[in-house]
TrEMBL record, chains A, B:
The keyword Methyltransferase does not apply. NCBIfam families: HAD-SF-IA-v2 (TIGR01493), HAD_type_II (TIGR01428). Transmembrane segments: none annotated. It holds the Pfam family Hydrolase. It comes from the Bacteria. This is Haloacid dehalogenase type II. InterPro entries: 2-HAD, HAD-like_sf, HAD-SF_hydro_IA, HAD_sf, PGP-like_dom2, S-2-haloacid_dehalogenase. Keywords: Hydrolase. Belongs to the HAD-like hydrolase superfamily. S-2-haloalkanoic acid dehalogenase family.
């Protein structure tokens, strides 16, 4: 199998970072400090489940484009009452939105990205998180990239095709020589439709140990166990 | 003196990299391979002297915005006849444009940026080079940044104010908490006018040993001998 690429861009929430345990921990800490109690993992899951529908409304033009932080705040405000957490104050809510800037990486993500940094492949994020969020997140998580690319630069959100095509244009690479790496089949399907190559990394624990793991999408170019394995495959082929 | 900043963005051509010796070397190699002879440093200087006027025409709206690679090519084509280098072929000209993707860093740039990466300050490029150019240049030169920002993201060129303001917006920092670092007084003057803080690093050899060095602009917030010194000053204050 031949896969000639010049650059690889990575999904971040889920593919490189464990948003579920990170956000649950911050909810427990910040909520606990405010004297509140809840099933914090369930709050995290409910928050995250609002993500795709709300971003979908932006992609469909039903909501104006706005930074992910603003959308995260809207989703949080919608979710809290259902858990009896209306009492959570303004500064706590703002701090929780910033929990998404401080996600913990999966253990293979940092070492795998270092390996790729030492290869000829140009690496970047390609996330729905904004540029500022991604710069902070990758810095504190020790995730080394050659550049930070965001859906923000296309003023849209994945899976809109212009997000993938803007990344290729900014990197000055042909879409067919740009690899999208993600654990979400719909992200990879949209990238493939825009002409990119695709690599699937399973993250069976993304939604916790009880959730059913995702299968790789049909037609994916590469499946790798983790980022270190992916780096080995790309370096071998590079 | 107090200088509270959240992020620092760096000029690249001149401030972090020695474009003159790098491009002169590539001209000598590529021109020599084509059997041509010239004062290659003079060709480099003439090429670079076209830079500000041509970018100024884009900022003034007299030329449509286009990637820096395209402008570098226009400038090169204008310069070559004056040196009797009309014979230089199409592939050689294209390769020379890419010489600006492979510039050598000044020796303090890499170590200084590593120090800043280990501080709370978010670092980025802020160059007239495009995102793809900057990703390649910083990767091969070992210049570590938390993100790559370019005038391209404002579809303009420095010293247009929207270039500086777009950087602050993407980083989600107040302009007054963003530091522009450069060896060019006009870059810093424009950044200050847009509300940024400014740091001057002298690069007396930018135009070769015979050129007069630039003075720091009036009102600059910080003057540092090199990037390592700057990192020490910012970490001390951070």
């Amino acid at each position: 199998m031949s896969l000639e690429i010049d650059a690889a861009v990575f999904d971040v929430f889920g593919t490189l970072t464990d948003w579920r345990s990170s956000v649950t921990e911050e909810l427990a800490e910040i909520g606990g400090r405010a004297g509140l109690h809840a099933d914090w993992a369930a709050v995290t899951d409910a928050w995250r489940r609002r993500y795709r529908p709300v971003l979908g409304r932006v992609v469909a033009g039903e909501l104006p484009w706005q930074p992910l932080d603003a959308l995260h705040r809207i989703m949080l405000d919608e979710v809290l009452p259902g858990f009896g957490l209306d009492a959570l104050g303004e500064p706590e809510r703002a701090e929780l939105v910033r929990a998404w800037h401080r996600l913990r990486p999966w253990p293979d993500a940092g070492p795998g990205l270092e390996l790729l940094h030492d290869s000829p492949v140009i690496t970047g994020t390609l996330s729905n998180g904004g540029v500022g969020l991604l710069a902070r997140l990758t810095k504190q998580a020790g995730l080394r990239f050659d550049c930070v690319l965001s859906a923000e630069l296309a003023r849209s959100y994945k899976p809109a095709p212009q997000v993938y095509l803007t990344a290729a244009e900014l990197l000055e690479v042909e879409p067919g020589r740009l690899l999208m790496v993600a654990c979400h089949p719909d992200d990879l399907e949209a990238a493939a439709k825009a002409g990119l190559r695709t690599a699937f990394i399973p993250r069976p624990l993304e939604w916790g140990p009880a959730a059913a793991p995702a299968d790789p999408p049909a037609g994916v170019d590469l499946v790798a166990e983790d980022v270190v394995t992916l780096a080995g495959l790309l370096r071998g082929r590079g």
